[in-house]
């Protein structure tokens, strides 16, 4: 028995340095539990699967961080819960992954776990949404969208389009409260309503970025209000849900209807609805972050310093001018 134990220990002593040496991930040295020889180990904590945008984002990460490309991707779906995301990051630290990548569910709540990651010497790349912290040494860098700009783009279009209207009844369907995407898009409308005396936000509620909740909220809203000029909807999936509710209630929407829908994401399905005139204006949010995160990791592997903050270029689509070619060229 003793002999077996001794032999086991000797084997372990031989293996540990070998595994550590093979684990080429630069700063984050260690021994992840699975067989990762020669691969860079990425722990990626994803928000969930709430929308088409999110599915496209997960796909982009999976397609980029393949073993053929030299990576071992450990992807954890937090199912929309902050505590799951924190647990996932703690697991990545315990596993000694080479890089932690995460899309924060909300902006607050990261100081403790990121301090632990920093102590463990594991670089942290934030993707998509942002965190709120007074200590930006808690993360290596961030890449994602300018959500305030997205909100401002939508509102600038509203100001130009509805300038002749004395008053505007607006329903505001918000994304998951506390997420950067919600905060930026909501702030845009808030500033627009402050500037334009005739704008009246008659109802505001969250639909959590999902089609089901978008529909549910809209069913309630339609019972309360006969006149809705604008539905400012913080993503395509909630807009699809709201459209279902409006169809059922026999309310008209779109360029020829009573309610103009403004949406965000401009996914392929969102643009299909835009070219059909169901969504009047759709602000793009690009989910294809896999290659962007990979470019950052390549820089870090070479000892270079990536930009602390990198914003993705985005445009917006008007039902009046969008073309089928734009939709056909879309990757998501
Ligand atoms: O707009 C929404 C998703 O954070 C940009 O999250 C992302 C948002 C996106 O669920 O559809």
What structural keywords apply?
single chain; alpha/beta; 6-stranded mixed sheet; 11 helices; disordered N terminus
Plain-language structure description:
By secondary structure, the chain is of the alpha/beta class. Helix content is 42%, strand content 19%. The protein has a 6-stranded parallel sheet, with helices on both faces. Strands 7-6-8-9-10-12 form a 6-stranded mixed sheet, sandwiched between helices. Helix 3 packs parallel to helix 4. It is elongated, with a radius of gyration of 23 Å. It starts with a helix and ends with a helix. The model is unreliable at 1-33 (pLDDT under 50). It binds beta-D-fucofuranose. Beta-D-fucofuranose is lined by residues 50-51, 53-54, 128-129, 145, 179, 181, 209, 235, 264-265, 285. The site of beta-D-fucofuranose has 14 residues, from helix 2 and strand 9.
Give me the secondary-structure topology.
Layout: H1 2-22, E1 40-46, H2 52-64, E2 71-77, H3 82-95, E3 99-102, H4 111-119, E4 124-128, E5 141-144, H5 147-161, E6 168-174, H6 180-195, E7 199-206, H7 211-224, E8 230-233, H8 236-248, E9 260-265, H9 268-275, E10 281-284, H10 290-301, E11 309-311, E12 316-318, H11 324-328
Parallel strand pairs: 1-2, 1-3, 3-4, 4-5, 5-11, 6-7, 6-8, 8-9, 9-10
Antiparallel strand pairs: 10-12
Helix pairs in contact: 2-10, 3-4, 5-6, 7-8
Bound molecules: beta-D-fucofuranose.
